[in-house]
Amino acid sequence: MSDTYRQVFENNKNWAAHHSASNPEFFEHLAKGQSPDFLFISCADSRVPVNNIMGLEPGEVFVHRNVANLVVNTDMNIHSVILYAIEHLKVKHVVVCGHYNCGGVAAAMGNQSLGLIDGWLREIRDVYRLHATELDAIDNESDRYNRLIELNVLEQCNNILKTEYFQKSHATAGGPSVHGWIFDISNGTLLDLDYDYKAQMEAMKAIYDING
Ligand SMILES: [Zn+2]
Q: In the chain, where does the domain assigned CATH 3.40.1050.10 lie?
């Protein structure tokens, strides 16, 4: 077995010992349950270490990850996660976090087939088509790539607002709030795209309201 493989278990021993030493009840407390304020939906990219970039400890953020942080209507996996986070964990914030240098978005801007993942990445091509006027007006390819990454995040936020369970929660409990963020891998910072989910709900209401 590789050294990296063995090293992980060494790292884990040290990590557990460190936490137990600084707080003897740390794991006992964790084992009792979770009450995170955040649901964080991000790309599966290995360069996005969720708890680290948010400065949060175990138990403080509920996480779902997939290629290019997509919220796909027919994906039972992600909708089970979001519904559980909203209705049972009662998170205060749902964050969709994309990242610059996203390989999934880059692939969707190209014309090479990657096999099975083509269908998944087509969601991003749909985002491009929806915003083609804005994107095509950007001459610099790198700027267009970054803007598509941002627009993809905003459209995935919109996809959350379209669901019956989110609309019900918003009508009865006034939340949670929905946010679109970008993680900039080149300097380690998080950018808030200032997604105004309340205004967006109003704007989409005529077409997507299914809450009676
Ligand atoms: Zn990515």
A: 34-197
CA–CA distance, 69 with 99 (Å, rounded to integer):
9
Segment 25-33 shows an average pLDDT of 96
- Pairwise CA distance, residues 77 & 200, whole Å: 25
Residue 54 clears pLDDT 80, i.e. is over it: yes
The CATH classification number of 34-197 equals 3.40.1050.10
Catalytic residue, chosen from 64, 79, 102, 170, is 102
Whole-prediction pTM: 0.96
Residue owning tokens 């998080």: 190
Give the H or E element holding residue 150.
helix 141-161
pLDDT digits (tens, 9 = 90+) for 97-138: 999 999 999 999 999 999 999 999 999 999 999 999 999 999
**Is 93 annotated in the active site?**
no
Active site residue 157: no
Residue 43 annotated to the active site: yes
d(CA 203, CA 209): 10
Query: Quick check: is 102 catalytic?
Result: yes
Q: Mean pLDDT in the chain? A: 97
Distance in Å, CA 212 to ligand 1 centroid: 36
What phi, psi does 114 have (nearest 5°)? -110, 15
Tokens encoding 75 = 């994906």
